[in-house]
Q: What sequence folds into this?
């Protein structure tokens, strides 16, 4: 009887170990495959150039990027080294935004990160350039915002602060926290 008990316990233990190993291996593979499928872009574009027009045929945005990856299931598009040229609704001069990375969320919100530069194309603009690490752009309203530190370069001044809201249609800028302004004398 003792031998029968030892044999049945041994068979049960071996069966339990085999079952555990099979379960462990099958659960280990499933998330990896699901994760891989989830992060695969639906399409990729290299050396992207795209123009966007409004309903009456006016050019509103030009986009160029080294690389673009679109993820339809996640409803976002990722850009490497994008450059956006924005044409405001009031037909004033265009603005250019460049960054190392950008993410388009849905169809209207762009998050730009790493070495972000907003530059005026009008040489007579009071604000010539804005440098920061992070900007958000609403494509429907042409409003740019950031909660990070910013450097604003203008005609005869340089301004440091944090937090920024810029309406490109009205060219109105609000700096949330002003740190310092340095004025330069123009010797022309």
A:
């Amino acid at each position: 009887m003792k031998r029968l008990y030892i044999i049945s316990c041994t068979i049960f233990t071996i069966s339990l170990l085999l079952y555990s190993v099979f379960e462990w291996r099958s659960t280990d593979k499933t998330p990896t495959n699901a994760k891989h499928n989830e992060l695969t872009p639906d399409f990729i574009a290299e050396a992207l150039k795209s123009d966007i027009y409004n309903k009456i045929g006016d050019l509103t945005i030009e986009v160029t990027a080294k690389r673009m990856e679109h993820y339809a299931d996640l409803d976002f598009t990722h850009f490497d080294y994008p450059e956006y040229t924005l044409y405001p609704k009031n037909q004033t001069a265009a603005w250019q935004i460049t960054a190392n990375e950008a993410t388009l969320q849905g169809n209207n919100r762009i998050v730009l990160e790493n070495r972000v530069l907003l530059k005026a194309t009008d040489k007579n603009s009071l604000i010539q350039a804005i440098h920061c690490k992070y900007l958000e752009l609403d494509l429907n309203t042409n409003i740019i915002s950031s909660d990070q530190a910013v450097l604003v370069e203008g005609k005869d001044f340089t301004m440091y602060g944090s937090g920024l809201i810029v309406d490109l249609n009205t060219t109105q800028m609000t700096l949330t926290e002003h740190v310092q302004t340095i004025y330069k004398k123009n010797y022309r």
User: Anything to note?
Assistant: Residues 38 and 90 are 41 Å apart (CA to CA). The mean pLDDT is 84.
